[in-house]
Write a structure and sequence with these properties.
The chain is an alpha+beta fold. Helices cover 18% and strands 41% of the residues. The protein has a single domain, classed as Nuclear Transport Factor 2, Chain: A (Roll), CATH 3.10.450.
Length: 71
């Protein structure tokens, strides 16, 4: 799985991105993408956007989880 440069915009590390993907709390499907809510390596909640449906999934977004995804 590839990580686009935009995924690093909010300072989330590669280690934490993959930790959240391995430890999902919730997956919210979109149109050609999924928003995965999971924990980083320290237990904080983060959101990770993954573009799906092509040859390779691409992680395009990662940041601390916003409240709208934690309800």
């Amino acid at each position: 799985m590839k990580i686009a440069p935009s995924a690093y915009r909010h300072g989330i590390t590669e280690v934490d991105i993959f930790h959240a993907l391995r430890n999902p709390f919730r997956v919210i499907p979109g149109d050609g993408w999924d928003m995965v809510i999971g924990t980083d390596s320290r237990g904080g909640m983060i959101e990770v956007g993954v573009r799906t449906g092509g040859d390779d999934d691409v992680i395009f977004h990662a940041m601390p989880a916003r409240s709208k995804f934690l309800r």
